[in-house]
Amino acid sequence: MKYDLNLLPVFLALMEERSVTRAAARLGITQPALSNSLNRLRETMRDPLFIRERYGIKPTQLAEEITPTIEAAVAQLDDLVLNQQEFQPASAERLFTLAPNSYVELVAMPALVARTRELAPGIRLRMTAFGNDLAETGVISGTTAMALGRIIDPPDNLVVQHLMDDGLACVVRKDHPEIRDSISRDQYESLKHVNVLPPGRLKAGLFQALGQQNLKREVAVSVTHFLAAPEMLVVTDYCATLPKLICRMLERDSRLKILPAPVDLGTFPVEMAWHVRYRNDPAHIWLRSMIVELARELTSQAR
């Protein structure tokens, strides 16, 4: 019986995304092309595989049953083929999907894009949402090359590497009527605060650090991205507690001033996770080494 091995990654993307539109975007193909591949999958397996629902698609029982086998087969094929290939960055053409949390996307991804453009102009990078669960990133199925951020409770099929640690500092507007060159514990607790709630587990780190120091904070407004916080601060007398590398970027904004936190809030880890099938992939090894080097540079710059 003849069958197309290219259909296997399509099946895994559909299983992960539960949406034809999102799966097509992840694979870098058009929606009609993916729908055509799905029809061929159905003919091959003699099963609908995915049933339309109001907000996407739902796998059939057969689809659920064959997923582990297909994941293992794709991993073995990747190892067999990719390990025999030499990776030449300057001439390579490839798409990598990365899932950085909003912190990593802001502090590290611009440098990665610039370096990739310089060393490997044919490499394309696509960012997808980190989300609240590793499964949402696509890294567990391998459809996403890697997740970058705080990796909590990774499954056995992920390799996790520590990249760096970052701390926390405070930000207020330059002409704040109460805060001069430092902020005391009493001032911190009396101010109202801008709270950043990025996707993933980074938000838990600040809450835990405040709790460990018994430092109280009255949250006046919560935002979903670090870039929203400065604009809230310049029009209020609020305070924000942000990662030091982001504070370092905000030092260029003359409307703001950066201050040490009133107590030691410790550090939080930044990690990189990828599917075991990419452990020996030369292209992935090259990309991971660049990210490790960038993390090292960021750490040295923050000292």
Task: Tell me what the structure shows.
- The chain has helices at 7-17, 20-27, 31-45, 61-82, 102-107, 109-119, 134-137, 185-190, 202-212, 228-233, 244-250, 282-302, and strands at residues 50-53, 56-59, 94-100, 123-127, 146-149, 158-166, 168-173, 192-196, 218-223, 239-243, 256-260, 268-275.
- Strand 1 and strand 2 (56-59) form a beta hairpin.
- It is elongated.
- It has 303 residues and is of the alpha/beta class.
- Helix 2 crosses helix 3.
- The strands form three sheets. The protein has a five-stranded mixed sheet with strand order 4-3-5-12-6. A five-stranded mixed sheet has the order 9-8-10-7-11. A two-stranded antiparallel sheet has the order 1-2.
- It has twelve helices and twelve strands.
Instruction: Please tell me what the overall shape is.
Output: elongated
- The pLDDT mean sits at 89
The largest beta-sheet arranges its strands as: 4-3-5-12-6
- Largest sheet, if any? 5 strands, mixed
Distance N to C terminus: 61 Å
Order of helices and strands: HHHEEHEHHEHEEEHEHEHEHEEH
Radius of gyration: 22 Å
User: How many β-strand runs?
Assistant: 12
Report the total helices.
Answer: 12
Low-confidence stretches: none
What is the helical fraction, as a range of percent?
40-55%
Q: How big a fraction of the residues is strand? A: 15-25%
Structural class: alpha/beta
